[in-house]
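Researcher: Sequence of 60S ribosomal protein L6 follows. Predict its structure.
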Amino acid sequence: MLVPSRARAFAPSSVLTLPSFLIPAFQNCAPAPAARRQFSASTSRPSKLGRTPISIPPGVELTIGEPYILKDFTTYKQTPRRTVTVTGPLGKLDLNVPPFLQLDHDKEARRLTLTIEDNQQKQQKEMWGTTWAYIQRYIIGVSEGHTAVLRLVGIGYRATVDKRPKLEQYPGQDFVCLRLGFSHPIDLGVPEGVTASTPQPTRILLEGINREKVMQFAAEIRRWRVPEPYKGKGIFVNNETIKLKQKKIK
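Model: Prediction complete. Tokens:
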């Protein structure tokens, strides 16, 4: 028979206590709520280009059309759009503007200001500066025009502008004929709205009011001889340069 004191010592206890050195340290402190950390603490700022007023030079007229619905036949979505028409001495260009862009045209001061509805949405902020750049390029295009100069660097590289009546896609189309070391010449049709000329056998001058068309055609010509870094040969657009590499000697 056990002694009462010993019986109380071996009796099961309802509360189990452990020494403090056996309790993990993270259980002593209550877990703090996880704070959500933002990627950037800086406040959103408006576009530097978008908030800059666009000055309209004399001889250039800007017309803002009425809103209309643009239907996409692939996704069957209907998107509201507006058309901005820029007219100048060299021609006319049209630009479709998203509905969230607001255009304030001051005819007396000949100034155009662009604003957006929500400064927190990423798409609106992106299209704010993009639309500003398009309108600015259109104004320069219809008043002064855009140019691109291509340099042909290589032995025997030549270019001419000729007619190809059998290959014309529209009446009076010119063709840029390239001789770039292939077994046959390369004939590239000049797109409508772009003018091509060769002031020198190794120079091609492209002119037009739409900068996108001019640079796209320049890229198509450059694709036939991309500048290579060992001999420095190829077709260079405007002020394009390339850093030469040393040949690998075994």
